[in-house]
Amino acid sequence: MSTTVTQDMSFLHLISSASLLVQLVMLILVMISLLSWWFIFRKLFVIRNEIKKTDDFEDVFWRGADMNALYQRTTNSRYDSGSMERIFAAGFSEFNKHPAGSDLEAVMESTRRAMRATYQREMDYLESHLSFLATVGSVSPYIGLLGTVWGIMNSFRSLSSVTQATIAHVAPGIAEALIATAMGLFAAIPAVVAYNRYASGTDQLATRFESFMEELSNVLQRRAAG
Amino acid sequence: MSVSVLRNFPHSEPRSLLAGVLAVLVHLVFIALMIFGLNWKDHPPEGMVVDIWTELPKPVQEPVKTQPPPKQPKPVQEPVKPKPEPETEPPKPEPPKPEPAKSEPPKPAPQKVATPPIKKPDIAMKEKPEPIKEAKPDVEEQKKKEQEKIKEQERLKELEKQKELEKKKELEKQKELEKQKELEKQKELEKQKELQKQKEKEQAVQRQREQEAKAQREAEAKRAAQQAAAKNQITNEISKYKAMILAKIRSRIVMPPDLPGNPVVEFSVTLLPGGDILDVRLSKSSGHAAFDSAVERAIFLSKPLPLPPDPALFNEFRNLNITVHYRE
């Protein structure tokens, strides 16, 4: 770390003149930030898509569409089907497996189990990577802080060999160390915001799925009884 | 049948590649912002550095420096005044020079013209009497000769007149020459006067310079004297306070009784600003442990030590050597 007054304080120069550990921290933070932004956008698209499909399916279902036709449509477009369609398909197929005249209580019980299993699988899919965003939000400031503390330690250690200590000797080292904290915060803030937003989004979807399951079991029970 | 298939098939995740591209784009935008944002703040610190330089230590020295500058401008201005005058004067002597140069060539010319006419009349005088002596025998011839004589006399008169005229001319020429000489002399005198003036001016300038040099020397001598006086004052102050410190310590010593001879103990004391004692080390023992410890106790008892009020002098007291004699 050469410390003269007329030093190049540009962003790239600061990064290139930082110590190895600080550079490593910066590299890790850049990777984390890239990953977290990738997941942020992925989850954004997934959850938006899921809400749209759920809206569409509920719209179609409660208009009184034929359940058999709905089931056929779901199994045909298996990769594009939404979570609520899958829950419906799981419950409907389980309900139809039982021969007519079986114990209604047992039939409804197994139907609800099948729907709950699918529901849990779907929730797992929707909530995947959200834990990564939560981790990034809580950990990356600490990683950045580690780089900063290390860089400041180094810049103060370089002061010991100087007879006249001025702020100009410490400033470049601290500036380049603080870049690590800035990068950590840059990774953390969007991750935290995205995590909170997507968590509430999946929660809303979960309540919609659960209420749909209850309503579907009621509809099927009436159909079996009637 | 279809249920088992339905249960396990994965979701086709929408636009995950677009998500990656967007993530990279966000980072590129952020990095560009960082680079340009920090580059803008790159320049102001250079200006701040200049402000720091002109600040602290010089105000005491600057008045000393500012006193000479008024003196220096004066010599600069005064030489400037004489310079234009010599510059304007040389043109004056120059125009006169061509005039003597023009008047000198005429001088030899009149002299050459003047000498031949003087010789010619002499020849004419010798030639003319001779024909008169030869013409005596004949009366007619005599008459003729008389007539000729008359004519000759007339001629002679005319010649004389011519000679007189020539003489007058010569005199006039001589007068002119004399006038020219006088003019030249006057010019030379003027030149000499001018030269003298220039010399006087140069001498005056030199005198001024010498005076200024003397003044500067005197000022420097005064400064040196003042500095010396200040140093003397400082040394006096230092020695005074050292004596005060020693006296204070001596007053606190509880002397152990009946030591033989006059033992001497030396302590090196490290002081803090304000007179507190940081460290006391025995640098040279007296050989009597009781005396050494008595002096050490006295040093600690006598804190705070008296120090000069000027903090600049504290460096002289930071590391003190204290020598205590058993008997004064």
Structure characteristics:
heterodimer, A: 226 residues, mainly alpha, 7 helices, disordered N terminus, B: 328 residues, Fusion Protein Consisting Of Minor Coat Protein, Glycine Rich Linker, Tola, And A His Tag, Chain: A, Domain 2, 3-stranded antiparallel beta sheet, 13 helices, 3 strands, elongated
Largest interface: A-B, 38 and 33 residues
Taken as a percent bin, the fraction of beta residues of chain B is 5-15%
Strand content of chain A: under 5%
Mean pLDDT of chain A: 87
The largest pleated sheet of chain B is described as:
3 strands, antiparallel
Question: What is the ordering of alpha helices and beta strands of chain A?
Answer: HHHHHHH
Strand order of the largest sheet of chain B: 2-1-3
Q: What is the β-strand count of chain A?
A: 0
Q: Mean pLDDT score of chain B, rounded?
A: 72
Molecular structure report:
The complex is a heterodimer of chains A (226) and B (328). Chain A is mainly alpha-helical and 226 residues long. Chain A has helices spanning 11-16, 20-62, 67-76, 83-97, 104-127, 130-159, 167-225. In chain A, 35% of the residues are buried. Chain B has 13 helices and three strands; from the N terminus they run H-H-H-H-H-H-H-H-H-H-H-E-E-H-H-E. A three-stranded antiparallel sheet of chain B has the order 2-1-3. In chain B, strand 1 (264-271) and strand 2 (277-284) form a beta hairpin. In chain B, helix 9 packs antiparallel against helix 11 (139-252). Chain A binds chain B through residues 5-6, 8-12, 14, 30, 33-34, 37-42, 44-46, 49, 74-75, 78-80, 86, 89-90, 93-94, 114, 117-118, 121, 125, 182, 186, and chain B through 2-3, 5-7, 9-16, 18-20, 22-24, 26-27, 30-31, 34-35, 37-39, 41-42, 45-46, 49.
